[in-house]
């Protein structure tokens, strides 16, 4: 199997019917450090830089992210990224602190491992937040409840996750006792598929990565010297190839995981429990807040719908709406500004100054 295939090229290329422009090479981004991009191409790892068009003409969301497939122009051992190839999906969150910005954490992933620690920090509604955002991004979740060694009865936590009424696989794990590790390796993570690990700081993502990859399979870097001796590149990477051939993206700890509104996404689709209860609402456009004939509120009052789940729904929906409004405002302001400059130009033309 050639290197690109090991990184999932075939499945990606076929699913999106990708063609590479003449003279360019496909490569996958495995790490980004400032303006330096590290990629794997068909002959191994290489360093890459942005072409001028990307450097000066692209929005930050359009720039290469870990997991992206790109078209490179090769120049000796260096690559120039000419184009970011279409993405099958992108995992994003609201950029911490910023109001309207979406930060893309990784792209082209087959599933996300949402890692939560079963210590005092465990909070099932935080998990809900991750699941909502993943669904908004069109990415399948796998829940990992780590540090199971710390609790007497981990089944209590499984029941807690069931409160969310989502059809999501849940795995109890411990990197310490190794509980669930074989299951992850053999049944969850599939060769040539790409996974991303997300979860707050301290839940055990690095420990999990260490447990999964004793002796990471590193590819050898391309060389420029005449004797073509393989040079071992030791870049710190973000996308790892595990011994079973699966690909895992590690993200640094996230204190904030702000939801964004994704275009074309009806908010209620993201909340299956609410959507089910809403089937009985009197009006099809019911906002489930204080409307008469709202079956969702009735379900909460009658004890048929978890009030915490309902609260979380209101909170996340509000956050998404706020994000949406700010984006709309920004676009409108942009348009107004455009109109203003056009008018000013016309005025200047007319009065010739
Ligand atoms: N008891 C117990 N402790 C664990 C387990 N897994 C990780 N830890 C501990 O939890 C702490 C945090 O683990 P890390 O792997 O660094 O967590 P992380 O998610 O990578 O954190 P960031 O790098 O900040 O994102 C460390 O002290 C680990 O030893 C586990 O299964 N059981
Ligand atoms: Zn309603």
UniProtKB/TrEMBL annotation:
<feature type="binding site">
    <location>
        <position position="286"/>
    </location>
    <ligand>
        <name>Zn(2+)</name>
    </ligand>
</feature>
<dbReference type="InterPro" id="IPR010914">
    <property type="entry name" value="RsgA_GTPase_dom"/>
</dbReference>
<keyword id="KW-0378">Hydrolase</keyword>
<comment type="function">
    <text>One of several proteins that assist in the late maturation steps of the functional core of the 30S ribosomal subunit. Helps release RbfA from mature subunits. May play a role in the assembly of ribosomal proteins into the subunit. Circularly permuted GTPase that catalyzes slow GTP hydrolysis, GTPase activity is stimulated by the 30S ribosomal subunit.</text>
</comment>
<keyword id="KW-0342">GTP-binding</keyword>
<keyword id="KW-0547">Nucleotide-binding</keyword>
<protein>
    <recommendedName>
        <fullName>Small ribosomal subunit biogenesis GTPase RsgA</fullName>
        <ecNumber>3.6.1.-</ecNumber>
    </recommendedName>
</protein>
<feature type="binding site">
    <location>
        <position position="294"/>
    </location>
    <ligand>
        <name>Zn(2+)</name>
    </ligand>
</feature>
<dbReference type="Pfam" id="PF03193">
    <property type="entry name" value="RsgA_GTPase"/>
</dbReference>
<keyword id="KW-0862">Zinc</keyword>
<comment type="subunit">
    <text>Monomer. Associates with 30S ribosomal subunit, binds 16S rRNA.</text>
</comment>
<comment type="similarity">
    <text>Belongs to the TRAFAC class YlqF/YawG GTPase family. RsgA subfamily.</text>
</comment>
<dbReference type="InterPro" id="IPR004881">
    <property type="entry name" value="Ribosome_biogen_GTPase_RsgA"/>
</dbReference>
<feature type="binding site">
    <location>
        <position position="288"/>
    </location>
    <ligand>
        <name>Zn(2+)</name>
    </ligand>
</feature>
<keyword id="KW-0699">rRNA-binding</keyword>
<feature type="binding site">
    <location>
        <begin position="199"/>
        <end position="207"/>
    </location>
    <ligand>
        <name>GTP</name>
    </ligand>
</feature>
<feature type="domain" description="EngC GTPase">
    <location>
        <begin position="107"/>
        <end position="255"/>
    </location>
</feature>
<keyword id="KW-0479">Metal-binding</keyword>
<keyword id="KW-0690">Ribosome biogenesis</keyword>
<dbReference type="InterPro" id="IPR030378">
    <property type="entry name" value="G_CP_dom"/>
</dbReference>
<feature type="binding site">
    <location>
        <position position="281"/>
    </location>
    <ligand>
        <name>Zn(2+)</name>
    </ligand>
</feature>
<keyword id="KW-0963">Cytoplasm</keyword>
<keyword id="KW-0694">RNA-binding</keyword>
<feature type="domain" description="CP-type G">
    <location>
        <begin position="98"/>
        <end position="257"/>
    </location>
</feature>
<dbReference type="InterPro" id="IPR027417">
    <property type="entry name" value="P-loop_NTPase"/>
</dbReference>
<feature type="binding site">
    <location>
        <begin position="146"/>
        <end position="149"/>
    </location>
    <ligand>
        <name>GTP</name>
    </ligand>
</feature>
């Amino acid at each position: 199997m050639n290197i690109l295939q090991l990184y999932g090229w075939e499945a990606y290329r076929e699913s999106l019917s990708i063609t590479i422009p003449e003279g360019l090479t496909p490569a996958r981004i495995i790490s980004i450090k400032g303006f330096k991009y590290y990629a794997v191409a068909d002959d191994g790892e290489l360093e890459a830089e942005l072409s001028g068009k990307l450097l000066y003409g692209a929005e930050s969301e359009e720039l290469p992210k870990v997991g992206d497939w790109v078209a490179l122009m090769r120049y000796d051992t260096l690559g120039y990224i000419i184009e970011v190839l279409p993405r099958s999906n992108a995992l994003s969150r609201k950029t911490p602190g910023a109001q309207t910005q979406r930060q893309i954490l990784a792209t082209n992933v087959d599933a996300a491992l949402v890692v939560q620690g079963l210590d005092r920090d465990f909070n099932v509604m935080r998990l809900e937040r991750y699941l909502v955002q993943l669904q908004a991004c069109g990415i399948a979740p796998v829940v990992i409840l780590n540090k199971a060694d710390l609790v007497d009865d981990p089944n209590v936590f499984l029941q807690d996750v069931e409160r969310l009424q989502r059809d999501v696989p849940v795995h109890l794990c411990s990197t310490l006792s190794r509980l669930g590790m074989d299951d992850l390796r053999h049944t969850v993570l599939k060769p040539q598929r790409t996974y991303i690990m997300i979860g707050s700081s301290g839940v055990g993502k690095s420990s999990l990565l260490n447990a999964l990859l004793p002796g990471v399979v590193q590819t050898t870097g391309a060389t420029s010297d005449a004797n073509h001796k393989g040079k071992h590149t030791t870049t710190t990477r973000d996308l790892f190839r595990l011994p079973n051939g699966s690909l895992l993206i590690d993200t640094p700890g996230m204190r904030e995981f702000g939801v964004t509104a994704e275009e074309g996404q009806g908010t209620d689709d993201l909340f299956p429990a609410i959507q089910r209860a809403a089937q009985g609402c009197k009006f099809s456009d019911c906002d489930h807040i204080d409307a008469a004939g709202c079956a969702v509120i009735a379900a909460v009052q009658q004890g048929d719908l978890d009030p915490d789940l309902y609260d979380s729904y209101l909170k996340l929906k509000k956050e998404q709406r706020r994000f949406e409004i700010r984006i709309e405002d920004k676009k409108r302001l942009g348009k107004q500004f455009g109109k203003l400059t056009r008018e000013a130009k016309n005025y200047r033309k007319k009065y010739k100054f």
